[in-house]
Amino acid sequence: MAAVKERERIDDLLWRNFRIIQNSDWFCFGLDAVLLADFAELKPKEQVLDLCTGNGVIPLLLAAKEETAVLTGIELFPEVADMAGRSVRLNGLERRVNIITGDVCQISNLVVAHSFSVVTVNPPYRKKEAGRLSPSPFLAAAKAEVYCDLSQVVAAIAHSLLQWGRFYLVYPYDRLAELLGELQGRQLQVTKLMAVKNFSQDNPFLSLIGGVYGEGADNRLEAIAEPKEFTVFREDRTYTAEMEEIFAKYGKEKKK
Description:
Blueprint: E1 8-12, E2 19-23, H1 31-39, E3 47-51, H2 57-65, E4 70-75, H3 78-90, E5 97-101, E6 116-121, H4 137-143, H5 150-160, E7 161-172, H6 176-185, E8 188-197, E9 206-213, H7 221-225, E10 228-231, H8 241-250
Helix pairs in contact: 1-2
């Protein structure tokens, strides 16, 4: 078993009985990671890159979702990358999942240009100046654009994707227009968009965005103008049928 260090714990991912090591003092994954992993579309044996991987939750969830995918996660902090790597070993995924330490802003030093079929990312949500930063560098980097901003994340996606490769992001709904502009400027064309609400009467708080990298492709304007909606909770604060369906899909071992 992979070693667990002080302040760490092992949590059940509820996907194919996979588990993850998390540090109580660092950023722990939330439902946005689960929603993104479900939203992303993978084909057998594809090479997948996860930017800003943190504790490695997205590569782990995607490895559970598509058992032939080969996944790479990039994490800025060596300590966090080490923890993510131990989660990979905990689940016996060393042959399919690789965690590397590096700066997404220096993506050309980390991965060969245009070498991945799929890129996923759950980037920092807030601008650096928008609100108080956590004194913890790990929490600050996870929540705000301290070390990389939206433009740099989008540039890393474009650098990494094969022609007509696919990208999937989760991002605050109130920054969606900014995101769409950055994507368009890098030949990243949106093909699907989902607006996520906590409760049915709420305004969306998250957006799930999917698309392709390719010169000359056009955004599917209908996907942007009329996004699908997804609601997480019923009025009694239990999960909706749609949310329960996600857990049901991945909550058991695959049938042989």
